[in-house]
């Protein structure tokens, strides 16, 4: 029987014990999307991979491909291990949780891998998160969330309304999950969904936020969509973020 070996750059996004001495790894790879592999003997003392199988570190991986579950054969670190702590750690944990819960096995592409890697790089260089830096990081988080939904087939249509007309920056629009934006009268409350300015929708579509209102609306919009697709699952990283923020 021919053994198919695969190679790719990748990041470990989750690991958990498997049987007696092994570890089960969820990995985001550049060339094969999200995969699941067994690292045999990964929990034993003094194994050759001890200290390498860490999250948030770029790895070169070789694994034996099988249906459903692969077997890790070789792994090496491509960069220096960093000490993650504080809000940058919580934000990086948030990326992993979203990827674990929303990205199916075998899905993912180079564009999503690139934005994940880029955002991890920014977080790794952020030693303390001050107010101005936090706002910029949140803008990049919105781009990551948007790209993730696009990758799994739920790209948001934010530049066209329900009647096929172009969204206008100065108009108000009613947003609901799995519906196109609908023009909305000023000062009329919505019982479900959100009401936002067209400028905020266009900013989220472009991934570029010029005002604080656009950033705030983008956060509200993405939270609504993510809660729907997460089926209201509670993320540990969000709970930790609340503790850091003191709320």
Structure description:
The protein is α+β, with helices and mostly antiparallel strands and 247 residues long. It has two domains: 5-77, OB fold (Dihydrolipoamide Acetyltransferase, E2P) (Beta Barrel); 83-246, Recombination protein O, C-terminal domain (de novo design (two linked rop proteins)), CATH 1.20.1440. The chain is 36% helix and 21% strand. It has six helices and eight strands; from the N terminus they run E-E-E-E-E-H-H-H-E-E-E-H-H-H. Strand 1 (5-18) and strand 2 (22-29) form a beta hairpin. The longest helix has 21 residues, at 131-151. The protein is elongated and about 65 Å long. The protein starts with a strand and ends with a helix.
Averaging pLDDT over every residue, what do you get? 88
Q: Judging from the principal axes of the Cα atoms, what is the shape?
A: elongated
CATH superfamily of the largest domain: Recombination protein O, C-terminal domain
Q: How many E-type strands? A: 8
The helix count comes to 6
Which spans of ≥5 residues are poorly predicted at pLDDT below 50?
none
Architecture per CATH nomenclature, i.e. the level-2 architecture of the largest domain: Up-down Bundle
Class inferred from helices and paired strands? alpha+beta
Strand content: 15-25%
Estimated helix fraction: 25-40%
The rounded Rg comes to 20 Å
> What gap, in angstroms, lies between the N and C termini?
57 Å
**What is the CATH topology assignment of the largest domain?**
de novo design (two linked rop proteins)
User: How many structural domains does the protein architecture include?
Assistant: 2
Major sheet, described briefly? 5 strands, mixed, barrel
The main sheet orders its strands as 1-2-3-5-4
> Which CATH C-level class of the largest domain is it?
Mainly Alpha
Order of helices and strands: EEEEEHHHEEEHHH
């Amino acid at each position: 029987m021919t053994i198919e070996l695969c190679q790719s750059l990748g990041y470990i996004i989750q690991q958990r014990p498997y049987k007696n001495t092994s570890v089960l790894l969820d990995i985001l790879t550049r060339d094969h999307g999200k995969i699941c592999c067994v690292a045999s003997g990964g929990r034993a003392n003094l194994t050759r991979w001890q200290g390498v199988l860490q999250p948030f570190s770029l790895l070169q991986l070789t694994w034996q491909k099988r249906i459903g579950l692969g077997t890790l054969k070789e792994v090496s670190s491509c960069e220096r291990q960093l000490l993650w702590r504080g809000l940058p750690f919580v934000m990086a944990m948030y990326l992993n949780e979203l990827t674990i819960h929303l990205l199916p096995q075998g899905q993912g592409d180079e564009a999503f891998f690139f934005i994940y890697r880029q955002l991890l790089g920014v977080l790794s260089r952020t030693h303390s998160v001050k107010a101005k830096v936090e706002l910029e990081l949140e803008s990049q988080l919105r781009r990551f969330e948007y790209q993730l939904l696009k990758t799994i087939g739920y790209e948001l249509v934010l530049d066209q309304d329900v009647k096929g007309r172009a969204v206008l920056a100065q108009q108000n629009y009613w947003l609901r999950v799995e519906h196109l934006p609908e023009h909305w009268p000023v000062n009329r409350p919505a019982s479900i969904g959100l009401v936002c300015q067209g400028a905020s929708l266009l900013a989220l579509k472009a991934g570029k936020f010029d005002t604080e209102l656009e950033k705030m609306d983008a956060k509200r919009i993405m939270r609504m969509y993510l809660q729907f697709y997460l089926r209201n699952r509670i993320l540990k990283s969000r709970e930790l973020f609340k503790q850091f923020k003191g709320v």
